[in-house]
Amino acid sequence: MQLIRGTVATAVLVLNTALWGTLIFLLGLVKLLVPLALVSHALHGFYQCWCRGNYFALKLSGVQFSTDIAPQVNAQGWYLLVANHISWLDIIVLTAIDALPAPKFFLKDELKYVPLIGSGAWALGMPFMKRASKAQIAKNPKLKGMDVARTQKSCKNFKHHPTTVINFAEGTRFTTKKHNRQSSPFKNLLKPKAGGTAFALQVLAEQLDGLISTTLVYHSDSQNIFQSFMLGKLSAIDVKLDFVPLAQVPQGDYQQDKAYRVTFQQYLNAQWQKKDTQIDILSAQQTSSSATEKEASQL
Q: Of 185, 191, 193, 252, which one's alpha carbon is 20 to 30 angstroms from that of 84?
């Protein structure tokens, strides 16, 4: 039964993405030729339909989906959401939360070429991040700052609708191998990278209602979360969204101010320490709950 539910839920996710991704791409071409506000509103509506389809797929899978959302968060606000990154499923989970305004993501440049996902994200004006390495910048100094400029331009496109700008600060999905290679000081997390978050904060600070520090926890016996979901073996998902007023978030020029870069990285590290503790607490609660349910079923 678990396998059937997982298979059906995965099929729904694929069909949902194919349907709305195709419609968004086609309407994106219209937007390219006729940049009218009506077209942008229609694109936004299609995107919301995709988000609702993702929620339906999660419920269909039978996974226990729990959210703990700060009361200051509402669907008509503007937020910068900073989350840990575990699985491709993170995107599905965050888009399935109705309390959040339309989620927009910072995406790796390689995703631009993924059918439907890349084209849909392009049509919706999401930013594709392509970071130049130190070696590349040394060979071509003109590359320095280009990523910042692209970020600023992309973030300005978010002003037309209530938006949650989402940034996975770790820059990559968590695996034990990556965790060990980094010698991460956190038990459950990779080291956060401050650059993308600080840039988005700098560009959008005047428009944002606050920052949402988000902790994602999947309860599964396997570290391959998406595979666990497809097989119907993912038991529960916990999402905790904490609201942080902008007055409590260090702000400045990340590119030019070295002292601010240090300060902001320290701030982000402190947020990650809180997440690390939250993950331990949520994992312990789920283990206790599962044990109680097992005992009750044996009575």
A: 252
